[in-house]
Amino acid sequence: MTGVARKQQMVSLNAASAVISRIITSNDAYAALGAYAHADASMQPALEKIALASARLRLIMASAPFAPPSLLDRLAQAADLQLALRLAKNPSTPPEGLRRLLRGAPTEPVRCLIAAHPQADAAILSGLSQDGAIRVRRAVSGNSQTPATVIRLLAQEDDAQIARNVASAPQADTQTLHRLWATADAWVRAEVAAHPNCSPNILAKAETSADPLIRRKCAANPALVPEVLQRLLVDPDDRVRAAAVRNPVVSGERLDQAGDPSASVRRLFARRSRLSPHLLARLTADPDVWVRRWIARNPDVPTRLLEQLARDTSMDVRRGVARNPACPAYLVDVLAADAEAWVRAGVALRPDATESVIAQLLDDTDRDVLSALGRNPRTPHANLVAIARHPDKDVRRSVAFNDAAPPDALIVLLEDDYPLNRALAAGCPGLRLWQIERFLDDPEPQVRFAAAARLARATLTLEPEWRS
Amino acid sequence: MKIMVAVKQVAFLDDEFEIRDDGRDVGEDFFEKDLNEFDHFSVEQAMLIKEAAGGDAEVVIVIVGDEDADDALRTALAKGADRGIRVWDDALAEADGIAVAKVLAKLVEREKPDMVFTGAQSADFGSAVTGMALAGFLGWPHAAVVSNLDYASGARTATLRRELEGGLEEIMTIRCPAVLSIQLGINQPRYASLRGIKQAKQKPVDELSLDDLGLSAAEVAPASRVRRMYAPERGKAELITGSAAEQAARLAEIIKELRGM
């Protein structure tokens, strides 16, 4: 490490230490929680003591998905029934915390929650697959993390729900799926037909099954060969054709069923990319407004068709054109003067809107248009300050989502009456850290949390302000 | 001109909770306390009248509750009300709506407001009784579930609209002073500004006991008593999706399961 880098690190550590010390002095649970994940290990115990000071706070933290995993693991070390329930439900509880809960001989509902938990690892799931309670084993079978060996064992259970879960488990192997196909349950066979590990032999049977449910699931299978999918694209059942259109196996260029009698199937065509020119033209003239709405947003649509859609009687279709990244500048100009505010708001969201278009829209009084301008990085800073002062709290909030918002506009939001606006502003990178620091005293917990997290993270990542 | 607004601090339950050992309420670790949602609307209505009067009106927030209830009281004060009164005595620990109304009636005698607002009901117990019982004790005109109000500061009557069953609405004129219980949606409650929140900490709040109001513990003894609180057993529910044929097949499957076929 160079001398300069060492000096920077020292400055950072001192600044971090000062921020964390201030949070500790404030004795505020939410600020402590915000800073915890970014604090030095030596300071975490003091923050932990504040964040978990009462039984009520421990319950709140245990169910908070934004709580740091290490804090949740700490809570799992001495979890009673109510804490265990919350921790087992919390998607942020780490695998180690789940293991601790299991060591405490939890109740069946808690074991079910752990078995379904997205962070349960192979060892946890393998252990729970031996559980005496069928509900727990069902939850294991439905967990996408369950390993192939466990899936294979569970497939032998005589339980309809487990069979269905296993048939749709990502790790189910070809052999297991083959055995499940042999069962009489149409629901299980349908899941098998949709599985990418399903054998070609089964897919061939599924494709010609008399049951539309099985053909529909088969049509959704990403392992299908294009020839099979082409046949399913002309299936007599609407839902089968719809599933086939959604399947990315067939390239858009090979799709040519725009004359499909079902509008819901044509809507799916309109959402596909790389469609052929004549298919795009037919969809543009489709009688169904939803088909035209989707095709208006399709970036493959050529300019002459976008012109046609920009004159559509439906404002939602015109809005689609305004949101289409391929919309040419002259059409954007036309749509910026549309009679419907919803269309103008679509233009106001465009990151490529010209200065003159932005200037024209800034005269608008509609809340959707102004909210869109508040988010647009091309809106002039002075106007963003004005939008941050708008009487409507939702319009004001849009500025917090603008990465180019200047500190002047964000400072206005930091004084906002609406707590969510202050919380979002406190997390914005455009603000100087000294401006955020005073929000450690904000009356709203979510604002204090956001401010503490932002400050602690900034000190940890050596943001320039801390270096001087 | 003075408007008194009676507010309540209510409990918001967690998803998971435990009943207290005595089986009569939820354990206090399992809920958050906050200002009753209906009271945001009644406070706002009072503030609108005050502002229309150019500030020539006083809004007094009253609450029956222990020190914890100060948070709800200050929340209402932060919206611009002038002062607050909190009444507490251990004898009020199990007070029902009638007992609270008796306390409020004494406060009305003391404060002599021109109008009293309450929320249409409390979000936790939902008895919807306090406002109407208060009017009964006072012998004042009253209207419940008020969804629109035309009242100017100091006026001798108010015109209001009430929601009735069957989608009907009723427009009535009421003699003032009166007790009105305010329905959700009558206005758009404001958020307290940061300045308002800071100022609320400095606003005067009288803390009164039953003695101060000339009430005895026996007079506020609850007329009702919770014997037991419990969560009834829930039935199972499943969202059935798919085509009509698939839904019918699943329904048949469930019926077979339930009948053990």
Topology, element by element:
The complex is a heterodimer of chains A (468) and B (261).
Chain A: H1 3-26, H2 29-36, H3 44-51, H4 55-63, H5 69-76, H6 81-89, H7 95-103, H8 108-115, H9 122-128, H10 134-141, H11 148-154, H12 160-167, H13 174-181, H14 186-194, H15 200-207, H16 212-219, H17 226-232, H18 238-246, H19 263-270, H20 277-284, H21 289-297, H22 303-310, H23 315-323, H24 329-336, H25 341-348, H26 355-361, H27 367-375, H28 381-388, H29 393-397, H30 407-414, H31 419-426, H32 433-437, H33 445-460, H34 464-467
Helix pairs in contact in A: 1-33, 2-3, 2-33, 4-6, 5-7, 6-8, 8-10, 10-12, 12-14, 13-14, 14-16, 16-18, 18-19, 19-21, 21-23, 23-25, 25-27, 27-28, 28-30, 30-31, 31-33
Chain B: E1 2-7, E2 9-13, E3 31-35, H1 37-52, E4 58-64, H2 70-78, E5 83-87, H3 97-111, E6 115-119, H4 130-138, E7 142-150, E8 157-163, E9 169-175, E10 179-182, H5 194-202, E11 205-208, H6 244-259
Parallel strand pairs in B: 1-4, 1-6, 4-5, 5-11, 6-10, 7-10
Antiparallel strand pairs in B: 2-3, 7-8, 8-9
Helix pairs in contact in B: 2-5, 3-4
Polypeptide structure, described:
The complex is a heterodimer of chains A (468) and B (261). With 468 residues, chain A is mainly α. Among the domains of chain A are: 199-250, no CATH class; 251-316, no CATH class. Chain A is built from 34 helices and no strands. In chain A, helix 21 (289-297) packs parallel to helix 23 (315-323). With 261 residues, chain B is α/β, with parallel strands linked by helices. Chain B has a single domain (2-220), classed as Rossmann fold. Chain B has helices spanning 37-52, 70-78, 97-111, 130-138, 194-202, 244-259; strands at 2-7, 9-13, 31-35, 58-64, 83-87, 115-119, 142-150, 157-163, 169-175, 179-182, 205-208. Chain B has a nine-stranded mixed beta sheet, with helices on both faces. In chain B, strands 2-3 form a two-stranded antiparallel sheet. In chain B, helix 2 packs across helix 5 and helix 3 crosses helix 4 (130-138). Chain B is globular, with a radius of gyration of 22 Å. The model of chain B has no long low-confidence stretch (mean pLDDT 93). The interface between A and B is medium-sized, with 20 and 22 residues.
